[in-house]
Amino acid sequence: MNPAVRHLLSLQSGDGGFGPYPGASSRTEATALAALALLRSADEGTDGAATAAFGWLERYQSSSGAWPLAPDLPGPSWSTSLAVLALSHVDPGSPPVLAGARWLLGQKGRGARWWVRLMLALSSRPRAVELDVDLTGWPWVEGTFSWVEPTSYAMLALARLRGTVEDLRLEDRLAEGGRMLLDRVCAGGGWNYGNTRVFGEDLWPYPDTTSAALLALAHHRGLPAVERGLDSLERMLEQNDSLLAQSTGILALETHGRETGDRRSSFRQRLEQWEGGEVRALAWAALALSETEDVLGVGVRGG
Asked: Could you report how far apart the first and last alpha carbons of the chain are, in Å?
């Protein structure tokens, strides 16, 4: 059995969900990722656990179509993207998925006000940040700035619903989200959380953020910015051996056809000795080690 799947099965809460850490109360992010990993696993004995996790997601969807971060934090949250992504693998046309997609399409990161754009255009002073303020994706919190990770997760979820959701906004939002990500590439390749330069200083990329962006840009294979991102990710993974970095990195590299055989083998051995940590990282690890083709359903076969 996939060692990450085996560990996940031992961590499921009695309510069917998964907490962010072993023993913690269930939350949407961890539950959605674990549900998807269990569903897409090629291992036997995961069906009941996956069904219970999906049941948790369906119980805690709000009337707006969004999901909260947790049942005791009832406001809508960015984790809706991951819930929609996971449930779309069960039935992309189900009411929970369609309601979640409508909510996502109604969310838009706030750009600069018109008067701020005018001041920037007229000012000769160096800009604090250097990015296209007219390109918007998705925020962590409603009505705030667009960031790389929530934009990437929303794009992964909505890309799964092409041909299912009849909403003219879907393709436009995916296209603009892609442009926003390509505008946010760091100087040496890869992605920071949201900016590329601050007060004239280049920002450095992070492996998990870079992996999220590359997964969202699965259908942009071969673009120079994407290739630089992949090169940057490979360098980062040589220096960062965290479970989250390695698992999301393997998925991103394989999605774009990069070889990961040696990395995957050593990663699997490491997971045999897993003794605790973030459940979301463990779920990403289960997805990375899955033998299921195109495990995230992004429509691209890795190498």
From this structure: 23
Residue 53 CB partners (closer than 8 Å, separation 6+): 12, 16, 17, 18, 31, 34, 35, 38
C-beta separation of 49 from 12 below 8 A = yes
Rounded to whole angstroms, the Cα distance separating 213 from 190 reads: 8
Distance CA 149, CA 180 (A): 12
User: Residue 73 is encoded by which pair of tokens?
Assistant: 């934090």
Report the alpha-carbon distance of residue 261 to residue 220 in Å, rounded.
23
Domains and CATH numbers, the chain: 3-288 (1.50.10.20)
Tokens at 152, concatenated? 């990437």
pLDDT tens digit at each of 303 positions of the chain: 899 999 999 999 999 999 999 999 999 999 999 999 999 998 999 999 999 999 999 999 999 999 999 999 999 999 999 999 999 999 999 999 999 999 999 999 876 554 445 544 555 555 555 678 789 999 999 989 899 999 999 999 999 999 999 999 999 999 999 999 999 999 999 999 988 877 677 889 999 999 999 999 999 999 999 999 999 999 999 999 999 999 999 999 999 999 998 999 999 998 988 888 999 999 999 999 998 989 999 976 443
Contact 114, 82 (CB under 8 A): no
By CB atoms closer than 10 A (0-12, 13-18, 19+), residue 69 is middle
By the 8 A CB rule, do 296 and 215 touch?
yes
What is the distance between the alpha carbons of residues 127 and 61, in angstroms, rounded to a whole number? 41
